[in-house]
Structure formats: structure tokens, C-alpha cells
Amino acid sequence: MVMEKLGISGDLDGDKLLDRLGTEDIENLFVDTEPSLEEVKEAFDVFDENNDGYIDAEELEKILCKLGIVEVPKGECQRMITVFDDNGDGRIEFREFIKLVENMFG
């Protein structure tokens, strides 16, 4: 559903994302209503490029660049992850990602 809002279906090739998305599109993903758990999972899966169940600094850096949001050094991405990394493993798991999204709707 999240990807449908962005007009994306099928594989998420980085170049195709750049052609279709802008910063405003990302910001407006969840504007209408609080996202369902399914939508949050779909968004998580976009960031979890290697499908290991975690978002690490390298994946965060790649997706932020692909989406054209910002160019952020890997070290800064790690600091961003630390904010929501409850168990201190240096990665964001789905439960922690849910917390991040919930904070967006605070």
C-alpha cells in the first residue's frame, strides 16, 4: 500500500525510484492517516534491502541516496539508527521501526 501510494509496483530498482520519487513524496507517505501495520512493514522492507530483518547504516545510507532525500555519510546514518536502537545492536529491527513510525505521529 505504501508503495502503491508512490506509484511503484514490482521490483524496487534504485534508478526507477529516483525517476519516480521526490522528497515531498516520501514526506507525504503517511500524511492522510496513521499507517496500518501492513504499510509499516512494507516501508520497512524497502529499507531492509538484504531482507535480513534489520536496517543497518549502510542500507539506510543507500535508500536515502536512492530516494534523493539526502546524501548522508554512513557515520551519520549510524547515529540516526542509534536513536531508535533499543537493544544496542547497531541496527533497526521491525519492532524498533514501528516505534520510529509511532513517533512520527506522536
From TrEMBL:
One GO MF term attached to the UniProt entry: calcium ion binding
All copies of domain EF-hand, residue ranges: 35-70, 72-106
UniProt xrefs under SMART domains: EFh (SM00054)
One protein family per Pfam: EF-hand_7
Family annotation (CDD domains): EFh (cd00051)
Keywords: Calcium, Metal-binding, Repeat
Keyword GTP-binding carried by entry: no
Protein name as catalogued: EF-hand domain-containing protein
Species: Escallonia rubra
